[in-house]
Each structure stands twice: as structure tokens, then as C-alpha cells.
């Protein structure tokens, strides 16, 4: 689309946290905390840039999580797309006996933390977005008052699907695709 429309102006802006905060980027333990801090800084920068450039739209591409903040969503005068987002779903409690006591506690804590985080960040982002894109119908139901659209956060264009015919790898006509 960009090649077909040369008048489209896109200017990437690199943004990172100060050096003292980047140590969180190591490993997965601090990734979410880093993300929350980064979104706060991104919001300040986006507000400033929007005042200077008057953007037409912002699109928050996320960890695909509806329980983390979205910096560009809710900026006055800036329409925003939020998503595709997904989220934590409750464990089927009928299967709790296979979790054991420790697993049951961990699962309960995970669900509680995600719920509180979703209430703090996700609901605010959904209310502030012009368009909410949900990964599936369960998430769409969660944000039904914002009339979300449903799109997978990962998809394969059918025209790109490999054809098994004539393939030396696939002689019996079956095809498996792993992502």
C-alpha cells in the first residue's frame, strides 16, 4: 500500500527508556514492567508529536494483551486502533484436581492479576479507541460495548498457502502448517 501511495508520509521514531531502566529488557521477567514504563513514555512523545504533526490515526500494536496499557490510545483528537488484543481466560475449574494445590494457587493468582490489570488498562484502552480489534469472539464479548471487530493476531493469506500438488515432500496429499 505504501508503494501505491507515494504521498503517504511515515516517519519512524525510535524510542527507548533511559539506560537505568533498560536492564529490565533482559529475560522475560521484566518485559511486562518495561512495557508499562515504555508505554508511559510513548504516550508523552505521541502527544507531543501529534501537536506538531496532527496525525490522522494511531495504531497500537501490542503484546496482543488486553491487560497492558496502550500509550497512543485516548490522546485527544487522535483516532486510534487498539489491537488485535487477547487476554487471559479462566482455567476450567473442573480440571483443578490435576493442577495440585500449588498449581491451583498460581492459576488463581494469574487470573486475579490479569483481571485487575485488565480493569486498570484494558477497559480504559477500549473506551479510548476508535476501533477495537479482538483476537477472538471471547475477547470481543469482553469489550462488547465498544463494538469490536474480530481479527486474528496472526493469519495466513490463503493465496500464500503452499500447494501440496507436485511437492516431493508431501506425496500423500496431506499438509500440516505450524506457526
Keywords:
four-stranded parallel β-sheet, 8% strand, alpha/beta, 179 residues
Description:
This protein has 179 residues and is an alpha/beta fold. Helix content is 32%, strand content 8%. The chain has 3 helices and 4 strands. The two termini are 25 Å apart. 19% of the residues are buried. The model has no long low-confidence stretch (mean pLDDT 79).
Walk across the major sheet and give the strand order. 1-2-3-4
Average pLDDT level = 79
The shape is globular
CA radius of gyration is 20 Å
Largest β sheet strand count, sense and barrel closure:
4 strands, parallel
Record field, number of beta strands = 4
Count up the helices: 3
Low-confidence parts lasting 5 or more residues at pLDDT below 50?
A: none
- Cα separation of the termini: 25 Å
Q: Helices and strands: which structural class?
A: alpha/beta
What is the H/E string? Answer: HEEHEHE
Task: Spell out the blueprint of helices and strands.
Elements: H1 31-53, E1 58-60, E2 80-85, H2 100-128, E3 131-134, H3 137-142, E4 149-150
Parallel strand pairs: 1-2, 2-3, 3-4
Amino acid at each position: 500500500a505504501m508503494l501505491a501511495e507515494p504521498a503517504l508520509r511515515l516517519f519512524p521514531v525510535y524510542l527507548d527508556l533511559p539506560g537505568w531502566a533498560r536492564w529490565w529488557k533482559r529475560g522475560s521477567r521484566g518485559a511486562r514492567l518495561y512495557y508499562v514504563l515504555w508505554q508511559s513514555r510513548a504516550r508523552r512523545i505521541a502527544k507531543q508529536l501529534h501537536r506538531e504533526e496532527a496525525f490522522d490515526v494511531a495504531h497500537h500494536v501490542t503484546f496482543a494483551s488486553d491487560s497492558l496499557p496502550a500509550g497512543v490510545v485516548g490522546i485527544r483528537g487522535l483516532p486510534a486502533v487498539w489491537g488485535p488484543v487477547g487476554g487471559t481466560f479462566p482455567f476450567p475449574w473442573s480440571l483443578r484436581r490435576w493442577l495440585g494445590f500449588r498449581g491451583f494457587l498460581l492459576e488463581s493468582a494469574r487470573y486475579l492479576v490479569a483481571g485487575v490489570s485488565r480493569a486498570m488498562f484494558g477497559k480504559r484502552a477500549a473506551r479510548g479507541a476508535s476501533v477495537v480489534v479482538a483476537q477472538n469472539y471471547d475477547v470481543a464479548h469482553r469489550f462488547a460495548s465498544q463494538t469490536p471487530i474480530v481479527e486474528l493476531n496472526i493469519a495466513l493469506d490463503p493465496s500464500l498457502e503452499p500447494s501440496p500438488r507436485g511437492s516431493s515432500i508431501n506425496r500423500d496429499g496431506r499438509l500440516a502448517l505450524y506457526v
